[in-house]
Amino acid sequence: MGRYFGTDGFRGEANVTLNVEHAYKVGRYLGWYFGKSHKARVVIGKDTRRSSYMFEYALAAGLTASGADAYLLHVTTTPSVSYVVRTEEFDCGIMISASHNPFYDNGIKVINGQGMKLEAAIEAEIEDYIDGILPEIPFAVKENIGKTVDFAAGRNRYIGYLISIATRSFKDKTVALDCSNGSASAIAKNVFDALGAKTLVIHNEPDGTNINTDCGSTHIDVLVDFVKKNKVDVGFAYDGDADRCIAVDENGNIVDGDSIMYVCGTYMKECGQLNNNTVVTTVMSNIGLYRAFEEKGIATEQTAVGDKYVCENMMKNGHCLGGEQSGHIIFSKHAATGDGILTSLKVMEAMIEKKQSLGWLTRELKIFPQLLVNVKVADKNIAMKDEEVLKAADEVGKKLEGNGRILLRPSGTENLVRVMVEAETDELCKEMAELVVEKLKKYAI
Fold first, then answer.
1. 394 CB-near residues (< 8 Å, 6+ apart)
2. Torsion angle of the four alpha carbons 9, 15, 17, 23, in this order, in degrees rounded to the nearest 10
3. Catalytic residue among 99, 185, 326, 344
4. Which of 57, 123, 209, 222 has most Cβ atoms within 10 angstroms of its Cβ?
5. Distance (Å, whole) CA 380 – CA 337
6. Which residues pair with 11 in a beta bridge?
7. pLDDT tens column, 219-231
Protein backbone atom coordinates (compact mmCIF):
# COMPACT_ATOMS: atom_id res chain seq x y z
CA MET A 1 0.00 0.00 0.00
CA GLY A 2 1.07 3.55 -0.71
CA ARG A 3 0.96 6.71 1.39
CA TYR A 4 -2.57 7.55 0.26
CA PHE A 5 -3.82 4.72 -1.96
CA GLY A 6 -4.80 1.46 -0.29
CA THR A 7 -6.30 -1.74 -1.67
CA ASP A 8 -9.39 0.16 -2.80
CA GLY A 9 -8.29 3.65 -3.73
CA PHE A 10 -7.55 6.81 -1.74
CA ARG A 11 -9.94 6.72 1.22
CA GLY A 12 -10.42 8.83 4.33
CA GLU A 13 -12.72 11.16 6.23
CA ALA A 14 -13.93 13.90 3.93
CA ASN A 15 -12.01 17.18 4.40
CA VAL A 16 -9.94 15.60 7.18
CA THR A 17 -7.64 12.96 5.69
CA LEU A 18 -9.06 13.28 2.16
CA ASN A 19 -9.81 16.84 1.09
CA VAL A 20 -10.63 18.80 -2.05
CA GLU A 21 -6.99 19.72 -2.61
CA HIS A 22 -6.12 16.02 -2.79
CA ALA A 23 -8.93 15.47 -5.29
CA TYR A 24 -7.87 18.46 -7.38
CA LYS A 25 -4.30 17.17 -7.56
CA VAL A 26 -5.44 13.65 -8.46
CA GLY A 27 -7.40 15.20 -11.32
CA ARG A 28 -4.47 17.38 -12.34
CA TYR A 29 -2.08 14.45 -12.53
CA LEU A 30 -4.45 12.07 -14.32
CA GLY A 31 -5.38 14.73 -16.87
CA TRP A 32 -1.71 15.39 -17.60
CA TYR A 33 -0.58 11.74 -17.49
CA PHE A 34 -3.20 10.45 -19.92
CA GLY A 35 -3.05 13.57 -22.08
CA LYS A 36 0.62 13.45 -23.07
CA SER A 37 -0.11 12.37 -26.64
CA HIS A 38 -3.78 13.26 -27.11
CA LYS A 39 -6.68 15.02 -25.41
CA ALA A 40 -7.54 12.74 -22.51
CA ARG A 41 -11.11 11.64 -21.81
CA VAL A 42 -11.93 10.69 -18.21
CA VAL A 43 -15.33 9.56 -16.90
CA ILE A 44 -16.41 10.29 -13.31
CA GLY A 45 -19.09 8.59 -11.21
CA LYS A 46 -20.08 9.19 -7.60
CA ASP A 47 -22.15 7.65 -4.83
CA THR A 48 -24.75 9.43 -2.70
CA ARG A 49 -22.54 10.88 0.06
CA ARG A 50 -22.90 14.60 0.62
CA SER A 51 -19.17 15.11 0.04
CA SER A 52 -19.25 13.30 -3.31
CA TYR A 53 -20.45 16.46 -5.08
CA MET A 54 -17.54 18.43 -3.64
CA PHE A 55 -15.00 15.87 -4.80
CA GLU A 56 -16.66 15.54 -8.20
CA TYR A 57 -16.18 19.26 -8.88
CA ALA A 58 -12.61 19.25 -7.52
CA LEU A 59 -11.63 16.31 -9.72
CA ALA A 60 -13.30 17.87 -12.76
CA ALA A 61 -11.46 21.14 -12.10
CA GLY A 62 -8.13 19.34 -11.91
CA LEU A 63 -8.76 17.31 -15.04
CA THR A 64 -9.90 20.22 -17.18
CA ALA A 65 -7.09 22.45 -15.90
CA SER A 66 -4.66 19.84 -17.24
CA GLY A 67 -6.47 19.73 -20.58
CA ALA A 68 -8.61 16.61 -20.17
CA ASP A 69 -12.32 16.39 -20.85
CA ALA A 70 -14.33 15.17 -17.84
CA TYR A 71 -17.51 13.16 -18.51
CA LEU A 72 -19.95 13.10 -15.57
CA LEU A 73 -22.05 9.99 -14.96
CA HIS A 74 -23.45 11.56 -11.75
CA VAL A 75 -24.77 9.09 -9.12
CA THR A 76 -23.90 5.61 -10.31
CA THR A 77 -22.15 2.40 -9.26
CA THR A 78 -18.45 1.54 -9.34
CA PRO A 79 -18.99 -1.33 -11.82
CA SER A 80 -20.88 1.01 -14.15
CA VAL A 81 -17.80 3.27 -14.31
CA SER A 82 -15.69 0.21 -15.12
CA TYR A 83 -18.14 -0.81 -17.85
CA VAL A 84 -18.27 2.65 -19.42
CA VAL A 85 -14.47 2.99 -19.43
CA ARG A 86 -14.10 -0.35 -21.24
CA THR A 87 -16.86 0.11 -23.77
CA GLU A 88 -16.59 3.85 -24.53
CA GLU A 89 -12.78 3.96 -24.88
CA PHE A 90 -12.05 6.38 -22.04
CA ASP A 91 -8.47 6.77 -20.88
CA CYS A 92 -9.51 6.07 -17.30
CA GLY A 93 -12.43 6.35 -14.92
CA ILE A 94 -12.85 7.75 -11.42
CA MET A 95 -15.39 6.59 -8.85
CA ILE A 96 -15.99 8.80 -5.83
CA SER A 97 -17.01 6.47 -3.02
CA ALA A 98 -15.92 4.99 0.29
CA SER A 99 -17.88 1.83 -0.47
CA HIS A 100 -19.29 0.40 2.79
CA ASN A 101 -17.78 3.07 5.07
CA PRO A 102 -19.89 5.64 7.00
CA PHE A 103 -21.22 8.68 5.10
CA TYR A 104 -18.56 11.06 6.47
CA ASP A 105 -15.81 9.03 4.79
CA ASN A 106 -15.18 9.16 1.07
CA GLY A 107 -12.73 7.82 -1.46
CA ILE A 108 -11.28 8.18 -4.93
CA LYS A 109 -11.06 4.95 -6.92
CA VAL A 110 -9.21 5.20 -10.22
CA ILE A 111 -10.00 2.65 -12.93
CA ASN A 112 -7.68 2.05 -15.87
CA GLY A 113 -8.63 1.74 -19.53
CA GLN A 114 -9.32 -1.98 -19.15
CA GLY A 115 -11.89 -1.35 -16.43
CA MET A 116 -9.67 -2.60 -13.60
CA LYS A 117 -8.12 -0.83 -10.61
CA LEU A 118 -5.32 1.54 -11.57
CA GLU A 119 -1.78 0.16 -11.56
CA ALA A 120 0.16 0.71 -8.30
CA ALA A 121 3.04 2.39 -10.15
CA ILE A 122 0.77 5.19 -11.40
CA GLU A 123 -0.82 5.55 -7.96
CA ALA A 124 2.69 6.02 -6.55
CA GLU A 125 3.33 8.82 -9.07
CA ILE A 126 0.09 10.54 -8.04
CA GLU A 127 1.20 10.34 -4.40
CA ASP A 128 4.55 11.90 -5.27
CA TYR A 129 2.76 14.72 -7.09
CA ILE A 130 0.45 15.33 -4.12
CA ASP A 131 3.46 15.53 -1.79
CA GLY A 132 5.41 17.89 -4.05
CA ILE A 133 8.10 15.34 -4.90
CA LEU A 134 7.36 15.63 -8.62
CA PRO A 135 7.63 18.99 -10.38
CA GLU A 136 4.55 21.10 -11.00
CA ILE A 137 2.41 20.22 -14.01
CA PRO A 138 1.77 22.92 -16.65
CA PHE A 139 -1.75 24.29 -17.00
CA ALA A 140 -3.59 23.88 -20.26
CA VAL A 141 -4.27 27.20 -21.98
CA LYS A 142 -6.55 28.62 -24.67
CA GLU A 143 -8.37 25.96 -26.69
CA ASN A 144 -6.46 23.17 -24.88
CA ILE A 145 -8.37 23.71 -21.63
CA GLY A 146 -10.69 20.76 -21.04
CA LYS A 147 -14.46 20.73 -20.71
CA THR A 148 -17.06 18.86 -18.65
CA VAL A 149 -19.72 16.80 -20.38
CA ASP A 150 -23.00 15.48 -18.95
CA PHE A 151 -22.80 11.74 -19.60
CA ALA A 152 -25.85 10.29 -17.82
CA ALA A 153 -26.43 8.32 -21.03
CA GLY A 154 -23.48 6.12 -20.07
CA ARG A 155 -25.32 4.96 -16.95
CA ASN A 156 -28.38 4.13 -19.01
CA ARG A 157 -26.28 2.02 -21.38
CA TYR A 158 -24.97 0.11 -18.39
CA ILE A 159 -28.53 -0.58 -17.21
CA GLY A 160 -29.35 -1.92 -20.66
CA TYR A 161 -26.25 -4.10 -20.57
CA LEU A 162 -27.27 -5.66 -17.25
CA ILE A 163 -30.74 -6.42 -18.58
CA SER A 164 -29.22 -8.10 -21.65
CA ILE A 165 -27.21 -10.52 -19.49
CA ALA A 166 -30.27 -12.24 -17.99
CA THR A 167 -31.10 -15.58 -19.64
CA ARG A 168 -34.72 -15.81 -18.50
CA SER A 169 -37.56 -13.58 -17.35
CA PHE A 170 -37.95 -13.09 -13.60
CA LYS A 171 -41.73 -13.24 -13.89
CA ASP A 172 -43.45 -14.88 -10.90
CA LYS A 173 -40.40 -14.15 -8.70
CA THR A 174 -40.67 -11.75 -5.76
CA VAL A 175 -37.30 -10.15 -5.05
CA ALA A 176 -36.30 -7.86 -2.18
CA LEU A 177 -33.51 -5.34 -2.73
CA ASP A 178 -31.67 -3.39 -0.01
CA CYS A 179 -29.97 -0.53 -1.87
CA SER A 180 -28.13 0.78 1.20
CA ASN A 181 -29.26 4.34 0.35
CA GLY A 182 -26.35 4.30 -2.06
CA SER A 183 -25.51 3.99 -5.73
CA ALA A 184 -27.78 1.00 -6.36
CA SER A 185 -30.74 3.29 -5.63
CA ALA A 186 -30.37 4.73 -9.13
CA ILE A 187 -30.14 1.41 -10.97
CA ALA A 188 -31.13 -1.87 -9.27
CA LYS A 189 -34.93 -1.61 -9.22
CA ASN A 190 -34.99 -0.54 -12.88
CA VAL A 191 -33.13 -3.72 -13.84
CA PHE A 192 -35.31 -6.13 -11.87
CA ASP A 193 -38.52 -4.42 -12.94
CA ALA A 194 -37.47 -4.64 -16.59
CA LEU A 195 -36.87 -8.37 -16.18
CA GLY A 196 -40.38 -8.94 -14.86
CA ALA A 197 -39.76 -9.45 -11.15
CA LYS A 198 -42.08 -8.21 -8.43
CA THR A 199 -39.47 -5.94 -6.86
CA LEU A 200 -39.68 -4.80 -3.24
CA VAL A 201 -37.11 -2.18 -2.34
CA ILE A 202 -35.85 -0.86 0.99
CA HIS A 203 -33.28 1.84 1.79
CA ASN A 204 -33.73 3.45 -1.59
CA GLU A 205 -34.01 7.10 -0.47
CA PRO A 206 -30.52 8.57 -0.08
CA ASP A 207 -30.23 11.97 1.60
CA GLY A 208 -26.44 12.39 1.63
CA THR A 209 -25.95 11.18 5.19
CA ASN A 210 -27.80 7.85 5.40
CA ILE A 211 -25.69 5.72 3.05
CA ASN A 212 -24.82 2.38 4.75
CA THR A 213 -26.52 3.50 7.96
CA ASP A 214 -28.12 0.38 9.49
CA CYS A 215 -28.74 -1.01 6.01
CA GLY A 216 -27.16 -2.73 3.03
CA SER A 217 -24.70 -5.60 2.86
CA THR A 218 -22.94 -4.64 6.12
CA HIS A 219 -26.22 -4.72 8.09
CA ILE A 220 -27.78 -7.76 6.50
CA ASP A 221 -30.05 -8.52 9.46
CA VAL A 222 -32.42 -5.78 8.23
CA LEU A 223 -32.95 -7.58 4.91
CA VAL A 224 -33.24 -10.92 6.73
CA ASP A 225 -36.19 -9.58 8.73
CA PHE A 226 -37.75 -8.06 5.60
CA VAL A 227 -37.50 -11.33 3.64
CA LYS A 228 -39.11 -13.30 6.47
CA LYS A 229 -41.89 -10.78 7.03
CA ASN A 230 -42.80 -10.44 3.33
CA LYS A 231 -42.18 -14.08 2.35
CA VAL A 232 -40.18 -13.20 -0.76
CA ASP A 233 -38.29 -15.68 -2.94
CA VAL A 234 -34.87 -14.10 -2.45
CA GLY A 235 -33.27 -10.89 -1.20
CA PHE A 236 -30.13 -9.03 -2.26
CA ALA A 237 -28.26 -6.35 -0.32
CA TYR A 238 -25.67 -4.03 -1.84
CA ASP A 239 -23.07 -1.73 -0.32
CA GLY A 240 -22.68 2.01 -0.91
CA ASP A 241 -21.18 1.81 -4.40
CA ALA A 242 -22.88 -1.51 -5.30
CA ASP A 243 -19.73 -3.46 -6.12
CA ARG A 244 -20.63 -6.14 -3.58
CA CYS A 245 -23.72 -8.25 -2.92
CA ILE A 246 -24.89 -10.41 -0.04
CA ALA A 247 -28.02 -12.54 -0.54
CA VAL A 248 -30.75 -13.85 1.75
CA ASP A 249 -32.56 -17.08 0.86
CA GLU A 250 -36.29 -17.74 1.12
CA ASN A 251 -35.92 -18.90 4.74
CA GLY A 252 -34.04 -15.80 5.87
CA ASN A 253 -30.61 -17.46 5.86
CA ILE A 254 -27.63 -15.27 4.90
CA VAL A 255 -25.85 -16.26 1.68
CA ASP A 256 -22.50 -14.47 1.72
CA GLY A 257 -19.84 -14.16 -0.98
CA ASP A 258 -18.46 -17.65 -0.32
CA SER A 259 -21.92 -19.19 -0.64
CA ILE A 260 -22.62 -17.19 -3.80
CA MET A 261 -19.37 -18.45 -5.34
CA TYR A 262 -20.43 -22.00 -4.45
CA VAL A 263 -23.87 -21.60 -6.07
CA CYS A 264 -22.52 -19.95 -9.20
CA GLY A 265 -19.38 -22.10 -9.42
CA THR A 266 -21.22 -25.41 -9.26
CA TYR A 267 -23.89 -24.17 -11.69
CA MET A 268 -21.28 -22.92 -14.17
CA LYS A 269 -19.39 -26.22 -13.95
CA GLU A 270 -22.59 -28.14 -14.76
CA CYS A 271 -23.13 -25.87 -17.78
CA GLY A 272 -19.54 -26.20 -18.99
CA GLN A 273 -18.93 -22.49 -18.39
CA LEU A 274 -16.33 -22.65 -15.60
CA ASN A 275 -13.04 -21.86 -17.31
CA ASN A 276 -10.16 -24.06 -16.13
CA ASN A 277 -12.60 -25.66 -13.67
CA THR A 278 -11.29 -23.09 -11.16
CA VAL A 279 -12.69 -20.45 -8.80
CA VAL A 280 -10.44 -17.71 -7.40
CA THR A 281 -10.87 -16.82 -3.71
CA THR A 282 -9.01 -14.79 -1.11
CA VAL A 283 -7.42 -15.97 2.13
CA MET A 284 -10.62 -14.94 3.94
CA SER A 285 -12.80 -17.61 2.29
CA ASN A 286 -14.19 -20.26 4.60
CA ILE A 287 -12.68 -23.73 4.91
CA GLY A 288 -16.15 -25.11 4.27
CA LEU A 289 -16.12 -23.58 0.79
CA TYR A 290 -12.85 -25.28 -0.12
CA ARG A 291 -14.09 -28.64 1.13
CA ALA A 292 -17.37 -28.26 -0.79
CA PHE A 293 -15.56 -27.34 -4.01
CA GLU A 294 -13.22 -30.30 -3.56
CA GLU A 295 -16.21 -32.63 -3.30
CA LYS A 296 -17.58 -31.16 -6.54
CA GLY A 297 -14.25 -31.52 -8.32
CA ILE A 298 -13.69 -27.77 -8.57
CA ALA A 299 -10.19 -26.36 -8.08
CA THR A 300 -9.45 -23.08 -6.29
CA GLU A 301 -6.70 -20.47 -6.33
CA GLN A 302 -6.15 -18.11 -3.40
CA THR A 303 -5.06 -14.47 -3.37
CA ALA A 304 -4.53 -11.72 -0.82
CA VAL A 305 -7.62 -9.85 0.40
CA GLY A 306 -8.89 -7.34 -2.15
CA ASP A 307 -10.94 -7.77 -5.28
CA LYS A 308 -8.13 -6.15 -7.29
CA TYR A 309 -5.91 -9.16 -6.48
CA VAL A 310 -8.69 -11.58 -7.38
CA CYS A 311 -9.16 -9.77 -10.69
CA GLU A 312 -5.43 -9.78 -11.44
CA ASN A 313 -5.26 -13.54 -10.91
CA MET A 314 -8.32 -14.15 -13.06
CA MET A 315 -7.08 -12.05 -15.95
CA LYS A 316 -3.60 -13.54 -15.81
CA ASN A 317 -4.80 -17.16 -15.78
CA GLY A 318 -8.02 -16.98 -17.78
CA HIS A 319 -10.38 -17.84 -14.90
CA CYS A 320 -13.98 -16.63 -15.15
CA LEU A 321 -15.26 -16.66 -11.55
CA GLY A 322 -13.72 -15.29 -8.40
CA GLY A 323 -14.47 -13.15 -5.41
CA GLU A 324 -14.48 -12.41 -1.73
CA GLN A 325 -16.52 -13.56 1.22
CA SER A 326 -17.60 -9.93 1.66
CA GLY A 327 -19.58 -10.11 -1.59
CA HIS A 328 -17.21 -8.76 -4.24
CA ILE A 329 -17.84 -11.32 -6.99
CA ILE A 330 -16.25 -11.05 -10.44
CA PHE A 331 -17.68 -12.69 -13.54
CA SER A 332 -14.91 -11.94 -16.02
CA LYS A 333 -17.06 -12.74 -19.06
CA HIS A 334 -19.21 -9.75 -18.20
CA ALA A 335 -17.15 -7.41 -16.01
CA ALA A 336 -13.64 -6.47 -14.90
CA THR A 337 -14.58 -5.67 -11.31
CA GLY A 338 -16.95 -6.79 -8.57
CA ASP A 339 -20.54 -5.96 -9.48
CA GLY A 340 -23.31 -6.42 -6.92
CA ILE A 341 -26.25 -6.13 -9.30
CA LEU A 342 -24.64 -8.44 -11.86
CA THR A 343 -23.98 -10.94 -9.07
CA SER A 344 -27.64 -10.95 -8.08
CA LEU A 345 -28.61 -11.56 -11.72
CA LYS A 346 -26.26 -14.56 -11.90
CA VAL A 347 -27.72 -16.00 -8.69
CA MET A 348 -31.19 -15.56 -10.19
CA GLU A 349 -30.02 -17.39 -13.32
CA ALA A 350 -28.89 -20.40 -11.28
CA MET A 351 -32.20 -20.46 -9.37
CA ILE A 352 -34.39 -20.15 -12.47
CA GLU A 353 -32.44 -22.51 -14.75
CA LYS A 354 -32.28 -25.21 -12.06
CA LYS A 355 -35.85 -24.51 -10.93
CA GLN A 356 -34.73 -24.47 -7.31
CA SER A 357 -34.72 -22.02 -4.41
CA LEU A 358 -31.52 -20.41 -3.17
CA GLY A 359 -31.84 -22.36 0.08
CA TRP A 360 -31.87 -25.63 -1.88
CA LEU A 361 -28.84 -24.59 -3.95
CA THR A 362 -26.76 -24.00 -0.81
CA ARG A 363 -27.95 -27.08 1.11
CA GLU A 364 -24.72 -29.08 0.69
CA LEU A 365 -22.40 -26.26 1.71
CA LYS A 366 -21.33 -26.57 5.34
CA ILE A 367 -19.73 -23.35 6.53
CA PHE A 368 -17.36 -23.44 9.52
CA PRO A 369 -18.15 -20.95 12.29
CA GLN A 370 -16.03 -17.87 11.74
CA LEU A 371 -15.31 -14.91 13.98
CA LEU A 372 -13.78 -11.64 12.78
CA VAL A 373 -12.59 -9.17 15.42
CA ASN A 374 -11.43 -5.71 14.35
CA VAL A 375 -8.98 -4.07 16.74
CA LYS A 376 -8.57 -0.32 16.19
CA VAL A 377 -4.91 0.55 16.75
CA ALA A 378 -2.68 3.62 16.61
CA ASP A 379 -0.33 2.02 14.05
CA LYS A 380 -1.39 -1.20 12.34
CA ASN A 381 2.05 -1.85 10.86
CA ILE A 382 3.79 -1.75 14.25
CA ALA A 383 1.07 -3.90 15.84
CA MET A 384 1.41 -6.50 13.08
CA LYS A 385 5.13 -6.89 13.81
CA ASP A 386 4.82 -7.35 17.58
CA GLU A 387 6.51 -10.61 18.65
CA GLU A 388 3.93 -11.43 21.33
CA VAL A 389 1.08 -10.95 18.87
CA LEU A 390 2.76 -13.12 16.24
CA LYS A 391 3.60 -15.82 18.79
CA ALA A 392 0.00 -15.95 20.05
CA ALA A 393 -1.29 -16.24 16.48
CA ASP A 394 1.19 -19.03 15.75
CA GLU A 395 0.09 -20.97 18.86
CA VAL A 396 -3.58 -20.65 17.90
CA GLY A 397 -2.76 -21.87 14.40
CA LYS A 398 -1.11 -24.99 15.79
CA LYS A 399 -4.07 -25.73 18.07
CA LEU A 400 -6.53 -25.45 15.17
CA GLU A 401 -4.45 -27.20 12.52
CA GLY A 402 -6.62 -29.43 10.35
CA ASN A 403 -9.91 -28.25 11.89
CA GLY A 404 -9.68 -24.50 11.66
CA ARG A 405 -7.28 -21.63 11.18
CA ILE A 406 -6.39 -18.09 12.21
CA LEU A 407 -5.67 -15.15 9.92
CA LEU A 408 -4.11 -11.94 11.17
CA ARG A 409 -3.95 -9.00 8.74
CA PRO A 410 -4.03 -5.20 8.62
CA SER A 411 -7.02 -3.48 7.05
CA GLY A 412 -6.34 -2.09 3.60
CA THR A 413 -8.50 0.98 4.17
CA GLU A 414 -8.56 1.70 7.94
CA ASN A 415 -6.17 1.70 10.92
CA LEU A 416 -7.36 -1.71 12.09
CA VAL A 417 -5.85 -5.12 12.69
CA ARG A 418 -8.29 -7.86 11.73
CA VAL A 419 -8.23 -11.16 13.63
CA MET A 420 -10.19 -13.91 11.88
CA VAL A 421 -10.62 -17.36 13.40
CA GLU A 422 -12.39 -20.40 11.95
CA ALA A 423 -13.08 -23.41 14.18
CA GLU A 424 -15.62 -26.18 14.71
CA THR A 425 -17.70 -24.18 17.22
CA ASP A 426 -18.49 -20.54 17.90
CA GLU A 427 -17.17 -20.95 21.42
CA LEU A 428 -13.81 -22.17 20.19
CA CYS A 429 -13.59 -19.30 17.70
CA LYS A 430 -14.16 -16.80 20.49
CA GLU A 431 -11.65 -18.48 22.81
CA MET A 432 -8.90 -18.61 20.18
CA ALA A 433 -9.49 -15.06 18.92
CA GLU A 434 -9.31 -13.64 22.43
CA LEU A 435 -5.80 -15.06 22.89
CA VAL A 436 -4.55 -12.84 20.08
CA VAL A 437 -6.79 -9.83 20.73
CA GLU A 438 -5.48 -9.69 24.29
CA LYS A 439 -1.95 -9.20 22.94
CA LEU A 440 -3.13 -6.45 20.57
CA LYS A 441 -4.82 -4.41 23.29
CA LYS A 442 -1.61 -2.54 24.15
CA TYR A 443 -1.85 -0.89 20.72
CA ALA A 444 -5.60 -0.26 20.84
CA ILE A 445 -7.03 3.25 20.75
1. none
2. 40
3. 99
4. 123
5. 27
6. 107
7. 999 999 999 999 9
